[in-house]
Amino acid sequence: HAKAAGRNQSCFFNNEMTRELVRRKEIEAELRAAIQRDELSIYFQPLHDLETGRIRSFEALVRWFHPVKGELPPDEFIPVAEETGVIITLGNWITAQAARVCAQWPDDITVAVNLSPVQLRAPGAELGIINALKEANLDPRRLELEVTESLFIEHDENSARFIRALTEAGCTFTLDDFGTGYSSLGYINKFPFRKIKIDRSFVSGPDVGRKSNAIIRAVAEMGAALDMDIVAEGLETIEQIEKVRAAGCTLGQGYHYSRPVPEHKATELLVRDQGEHPLARKAG
Ligand code: C2E
Ligand code: MG
Ligand code: MG
Ligand code: MG
Hints:
alpha/beta, eight-stranded mixed barrel, binds magnesium ion, EAL domain-containing protein, binds ligand C2E
């Protein structure tokens, strides 16, 4: 009896494991095919200068329009892509697309791409990014690479080489989601970040108050001293924009300005932005 139960149990676990493996394999295969089938696209969300209000850059955010499951958020498939290694191909594709679009915009507009820790750790992954830039014919100085601070917990030689190679090529690095992980000043001291993005949990939500505002001010002051841009994420209201501007943040991003939008809408945003300042910049 006990033996039978044990057998059933191990059977159950085996089935569960098999099912999970099959599910991953499916998503992995679907993801690889998704690129070919044109199911993936890149959306762009503007970053605005908090002093002038004008667009300075766009963050590229991947979207998957699955024929059956509908729109899948990146939080659902990026982890699978990371576990299966598909993220390398996917990440290079995303970078090439984002770079291609940015190359059509005015020279002073940059584009930011999110990098997975897996991409930084993979030996030789910097070549994939450099090739993507060449393919798109984009000046490397117009590509920003966003890495989340949690990445650096397991900092290794490959990641260091990746950052060195791409910095030498002219790309810049941004520390994303600052305040959600270890927020180590050691990372900021050691790596050549040009920007820090303060996580949106400091701007809105249950943890916002006197303390979070003081932290934003302190980070902004550090940014000014280090000649870095400090970006406030998740700006949904004018009050929040006013608050982070007063606290010393230099750039802002959020639904108040614009949600992430497809390429043609992003270009429209730029045209409109330039139209309001006709003398300030050449036409796109
Ligand atoms: P992230 O890099 O911190 O990107 C910002 C996320 O905040 C985006 O979600 C964006 O749509 C959302 N957001 C922007 N403004 C607001 C706002 O005002 N309010 C609120 N509530 N949310 C706002 P999204 O596009 O779902 O991306 C989620 C995360 O997935 C990203 O966080 C990033 O870590 C990852 N991700 C997205 N695209 C890529 C990619 O191409 N490659 C990699 N490796 N990761 C990506
Ligand atoms: Mg980001
Ligand atoms: Mg972020
Ligand atoms: Mg975030």
